[in-house]
Every structure is written in structure tokens, then in C-alpha cells.
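JOB MANIFEST
job_type = single_chain_structure
chain_count = 1
residues = 234
[input]
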Amino acid sequence: MNRTDRLYALVEDLRAVAPRPRSARQLAGRYEVSTRTIERDVLALQEAGVPIYAVAGRCGGYVIDKALTLPPLNFTAAEMVAMAVSLARVEPAPFASALRSALRKVLAAAPAAQAAEAAQLMDRVRLIGTGNPGSGGPPSPVQEAITARHVLLLDYRDRHDVMTTREVEPVAFAATRAHWYLIAWCRLRDGARAFRLDRIRAAVDTGEPAHQRSYGDLDVDIPDALIRRVELAG
């Protein structure tokens, strides 16, 4: 779990048990970090204005004031269904697991009546022949490395069924009608290459920082007219 996710989880964890406190040791064990890390996280949250207070004593710890923290945003039933349909259409695309996690958080925070309305609306949706990009999402180290800009060590089986081990610098994900690809700088071939995700047999994030390359830097031999950029806002 990265620090941003842990900070969010800490707030929700403390909100769930408030007004009871949780000790730094309890939180450290829950998130598999040191108590010092939890103390730094809590300090960062306090500096950001989150009302977390320390309670002294044998049963003390950290407590959050639920009355002064913003509740999760309320999504309409249609918005929740829209997220679910989008997830179904992109599976198993890159970052589908992140969308699934977001949807779970939305559903967990939704009032019971709203969740029931969404369930009824969801029953009216069918996906037939969606034509999603092919099977095989990215191994999690690939997704993490492309986000962190780390060098990947891949075991890759090419179209001729030849297995090679390569160090690559991941740059982007790209999809055709049939498959998802990792676009990367291949150190073995000393050039840009596209690796079909379902042909990656193993992937290890080496932790080594990769060069700050963009898609344009790779000079991929695909006409610009065929490329559509995906906007974050949809």
C-alpha cells in the first residue's frame, strides 16, 4: 500500500471506530509499517487539517472527530451503475483493479436505500458482444512500475514462441481491438517495443528509476490519425 492510500485508509479506519481511539501500535500492525511511520502519517494528516487527536492513558491512542470530518461524497444510483458498467467494459484493462477499488469504496459509503436503488437499476443492464480488448490484464508489477517509472524485468514469449528475459523502461499502455500492449524502451533491443500483455509470463519491478520518456519520445511507427488519447474526464 502506498502512502497516499494509507493516509486515506487511516482516516476511514479512525472514522469507523470513533469516538474510540486506536493506538499507533494497533495501526502499525494493521498496515504493516512501523509505529514511527504511523506517527508521521498522523502528523501529516493533522497538518492538513484533519481533526485527529491523541488520547493519553493505557487505552489511549488516536481518535478522530467525526463531526468535523467530511463524509464520503454521495453518488446517485445512476452514477454508481455507470462506474460498474465502465468497469465491466474495461476489464481486464490496466488500472481496472483501481476502478474496482473505487467502486467498492463508493458502495460501502452509500446509504442502504441508494445502494438498493442502484442494484435494481443494475439489473436492467446487459452487455452483449462488447468487443473489449483481448484477455489478459497487466501483471500488477507492470502497472506499479509504469506509475512509479521503474525499470521492469520481463519474461516475455514473442509471436514465434521464443522466450526472452528483458529489462525494459515502461512508458505507456496501448490497446487495439484485440489486445492490450505495454509500450516500452527495450534495453535488449536498444529501441522502442510493444509487449502484448498476455505474452508477459513474469514481471519484476526492479525499483531502478527509468528514464523520463514520453510516448512521443519513442517514435512509435503508428500513424497519429489512428491514435486516440484518453482524457481523464472521459
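[summary]
The longest strand covers residues 163-175.
The mean pLDDT is 82.
exit_status = 0
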